[in-house]
């Protein structure tokens, strides 16, 4: 019976780790591996200790302590003991969309979180569905700006296509230079947590890490490099908010 329960728990753990991998949550995956391996090492140390082999048990226990407390197992780094560092992707949300910007490739991916296409991956939407979603999110400026960012990155020539096939006004979605998004779009953020997610940082990141993450992301999304003015405005707002927050906490 105990082996059946253990096998079930191991299967659940493997499914969870695989889901983190497929979702691109590399930092969370590394952290999960760190605590999983640390827990297994403690269990193995306990077994050796109960069998009277205290030398082996103490060596394994010391390795487990280093892994759990400092995030290192010999030369292998499992996250530096929880210190804040850059993630591999930035996240930004609006009423209708969850969007991700991959730091390494610059790829913009997204999922619909509300409305007719709720739960659908944007990459799986056909031309007619993209048009229907574009029409639906038009009532929310942030969602419209985010969807336009995704279309610019993944559906080249979409404006001409929508204009030709669906009669979209070629001037739809005008850019507002003050906000970096469509007219009426706010560039502010709802919380400090959202700002950390957008810059791909964990809470507790210092000013140097914030500025470094900002510089790295702006190289990917700056409008002069063919990126998104809306995302650039959000990233700037995230940097300003976090620097202001860390400045207050340092006083």
Structure write-up:
A hairpin with a 3-residue loop joins strand 3 (89-93) and strand 4. This protein has two domains: 2-81, no CATH class; 89-250, Helix Hairpins (Orthogonal Bundle). With 251 residues, the chain is mainly alpha-helical. Helix 2 (26-50) runs antiparallel to helix 3. The chain has helices spanning 2-22, 26-50, 54-70, 127-137, 141-154, 158-166, 192-199, 207-221, 229-250, and strands at residues 72-73, 76-77, 89-93, 97-102, 108-112, 175-176, 181-182. It has a three-stranded antiparallel beta sheet. It has a two-stranded antiparallel sheet with strand order 1-2. Residues 80-86 and 171-187 have low confidence and may be disordered. The termini are far apart.
Task: Describe the SSE topology.
Blueprint: H1 2-22, H2 26-50, H3 54-70, E1 72-73, E2 76-77, E3 89-93, E4 97-102, E5 108-112, H4 127-137, H5 141-154, H6 158-166, E6 175-176, E7 181-182, H7 192-199, H8 207-221, H9 229-250
Antiparallel strand pairs: 1-2, 3-4, 4-5, 6-7
Helix pairs in contact: 2-3, 7-9, 8-9
The whole-number mean of residue pLDDT values reads 76
CATH class category name of the largest domain: Mainly Alpha
Query: Which range best describes the helical content: under 10%, 10-25%, 25-40%, 40-55%, 55-70% or over 70%?
Result: 55-70%
Radius of gyration: 23 Å
Strand order of the largest sheet: 3-4-5
The total of beta strands comes to 7
Query: What is the CATH-assigned architecture of the largest domain?
Result: Orthogonal Bundle
Q: How would you name the CATH homologous superfamily of the largest domain?
A: DnaJ domain
Task: Let me know the largest β-sheet.
Answer: 3 strands, antiparallel
Structural class: mainly alpha
SS field, number of helical segments: 9
Distance separating the two termini = 57 Å
How many domains? The number is 2
- The CATH topology of the largest domain is given as Helix Hairpins
Low-confidence stretches: 80-86, 171-187
């Amino acid at each position: 019976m105990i082996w059946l329960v253990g096998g079930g728990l191991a299967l659940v753990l493997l499914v969870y780790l695989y889901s983190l991998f497929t979702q691109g949550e590399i930092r969370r995956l590394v952290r999960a591996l760190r605590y999983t391996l640390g827990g297994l090492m403690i269990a193995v140390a306990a077994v050796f200790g109960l069998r009277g082999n205290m030398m082996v048990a103490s060596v394994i226990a010391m390795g487990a302590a280093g892994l759990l407390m400092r995030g290192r197992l010999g030369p292998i780094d499992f996250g530096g003991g929880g210190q804040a560092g850059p993630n591999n992707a930035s996240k930004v949300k609006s009423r209708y969309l969850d969007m991700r910007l991959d730091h390494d490739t610059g790829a913009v991916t997204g999922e619909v979180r509300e409305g007719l296409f709720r739960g659908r991956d944007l990459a799986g939407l056909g031309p007619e569905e993209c048009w229907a979603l574009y029409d639906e999110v038009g009532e929310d400026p942030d969602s419209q700006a985010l969807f336009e960012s995704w279309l610019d990155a993944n559906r080249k020539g979409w404006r001409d296509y929508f204009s030709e096939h669906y009669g979209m006004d070629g001037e739809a979605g005008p850019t507002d230079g003050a906000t970096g998004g469509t007219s009426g779009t706010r560039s502010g953020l709802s919380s400090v947590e959202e700002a950390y997610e957008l810059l791909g940082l964990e809470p507790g990141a210092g000013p140097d890490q914030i500025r470094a993450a900002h510089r790295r992301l702006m190289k990917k999304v700056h409008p002069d490099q063919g990126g998104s003015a809306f995302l650039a405005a959000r990233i700037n707002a995230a940097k300003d908010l976090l620097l202001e927050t860390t400045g207050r906490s340092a006083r």
